[in-house]
Amino acid sequence: MMKANIKDRCEIISKNFKEINPERKGLLEKLASHIQEKFNSGKEINLVYVCTHNSRRSHLGQIWAKVAADFYGFNINTFSAGTKATAFNQNAINALRSAGFDVEKLDDATNPKYEVVFGENKSSHCFSKVIDDETLPKENFVAVMTCGDADENCPFIPGCDFRIGTTYFDPKSYDNSILQDEKYTERSNQIAMECLYVFSLIKK
After folding, report:
1. What is the model's pTM?
2. For the segment 59-81, what is each residue's pLDDT rounded down to a tens digit?
3. Which of 4, 82, 139, 199 could cross-link 159 (Cys pair, CB 3.0–4.6 Å)?
């Protein structure tokens, strides 16, 4: 069962899709259409969210896509990756915690692994990695590019059968400012809304 506070957040967000502009909706509908084709053909659905450092936006995409699919009754696999490996950013983690997730740090490495829990037996495993990491699917996956830099620097991603650029403004520019937490929450909510919109369009 999904955590009540996260389910409540999803229900509120899903009533406000009108906030997504028409051009953006058109882009998200292309992603939904591809996922629908996979679902219709009985194929496993694997989404890999990609940004340069795999530290903020790509992790938010990985987590919220998993939640959104679960909210609408779909079981999918979500991952994140970058063109460089750094670490899951603490400000992004804080935004997830404020949204109701339990985030458990699993080790003390410079690039720690985390379990992000959104319900009973419902979680995402997160750490920073590059696109060819052994933990990622090698074929039959969608590459969702969450930043323009990664889109430009990953001109070819081996194995992906669909690639789409849903770029987001990087909240990193607000680090150590009075707007830091607000902007990370804003970006988390935007990604949540767009993931929910995509899966609201999928028909069983």
Report:
1. 0.97
2. 999 999 999 999 999 999 999 99
3. 139
